[in-house]
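Researcher: I've got a protein sequence and the SMILES for zinc ion. Could you write out the 3D structure of the bound complex as structure tokens? I'd like something to compare against our soaking experiments later this week.
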Amino acid sequence: MTSVIVVRGVRPLGGDARDLVIADGTIAAVAPAGGGERTGVVAEAAAGSADGTRPAPLVVDATGLVALPGLVDLHTHLREPGREDAETVDSGTRAAALGGYTTVFAMANTDPVADTAGVVEQVWRLGQDAGHCDVRPVGAVTRGLAGERLAELGAMASSAAAVRMFSDDGHCVSDALLMRRALEYVKAFDGVIAQHAEEPRLTAGAQMNEGAMAARLGLPGWPAVAEEAIIARDALLTGHVGSRLHICHVSTAGSVELIRWAKAKGWRVTAEVTPHHLLLTEELVASYDPVYKVNPPLRTEADTEALRAGLADGTIDCVATDHAPHASEDKETEWAAARPGMLGLETALSIVIQTMVETGRLDWAGVADRMALAPARIGAVADTPRDPASFAQVGAPATLTLLDPEARRVIDPLAVASRSSNTPYGGRTLPGAIRATFLRGRPTVLDGKII
Ligand SMILES: [Zn+2]
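Model: Sure. Here is the predicted complex with zinc ion in place.
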């Protein structure tokens, strides 16, 4: 028996209200809201069949909700295997689905490191077993993230996990020759190297953004040039070898300028920005609350402004969360000892609404591009919609999320789905709330709750 779902009154990309019929994992019919009764398509689906051969469908009242394509996160730390006390594939992907995500890319800095076919297949299978969203493992670039020898990139690419993105995230591939070799290697299968751009010699001991605030607080600084020097070098390298480079968590105005330059050259460079770098600034460090410690660090107001402008004009291709759960003993300690990183999956869309939609920089089609289509293209996700509108057309895979843009919610760190509680938004009131998420026609979230 086929399960049928009728979504009533939803506004795809904030446009006119529609009734959608979801059957066999795809959008089976679309009609003007309420008009389905007249055309019969939606009414027929909603009625089920009298003889019981077709069950009564699930009817979702989505009046006033905006539909977006299922979100894709290129940068998630799921912590399994190795730190299941901080997060698991199951808990992290619950958080993802509740945040509107249908695909997450799981970073390789687990224990053991995801640097072999065996480990990436393990993470991929854990994602399938959990079933909350698709998990695409990111393979390590170098063995053990040690930055000395290339990992088994080809074996990971041809494994069941079909890895296409590789990153030593948490560490920079700082050796230029290794970076060149990695870029050359992934050309064979159109893979991409995602670089954590941080020249390690310039950030040894760093605790926050370098500048006047660091001087005032007496904390060693992490200079913008440490990020920008690597971006410039790697853009030149990828232009030279004709490969694909993705820049993780861009955090400075100078980095935006460099990426604009690299794209103008025609080089295949893409970039992401985190929600926290769009909103939060280094002033928060004055509280010495380690929840604001993150790598790269929170920067200045001028940087957030440049990042918002870069995301709006497409210089920065997408938003990625850098969701980084940490157990309380690693995070709730004095500033210098605390691990860097913040939760992100359950709040990312809200922060993008606050910084980009409510400021008039992006419309809903723009949000769909920066949070779903662009990251799906970069990560080579199958079934990527051709354009922002096509996700809600007949025949498209029913992979979408329903959002109440008028909702306001107060973030309670102890009430998140993640196993950790290190959200920097605790106590803040954020706009927007996910009401439902569908993965190929199957609800993963309904009424704002995990299924
Ligand atoms: Zn990183």
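Model: The first helix runs from residue 36 to 39. The two ends are 20 Å apart (CA to CA).
Researcher: Great, I'll pass this along to the crystallography team.
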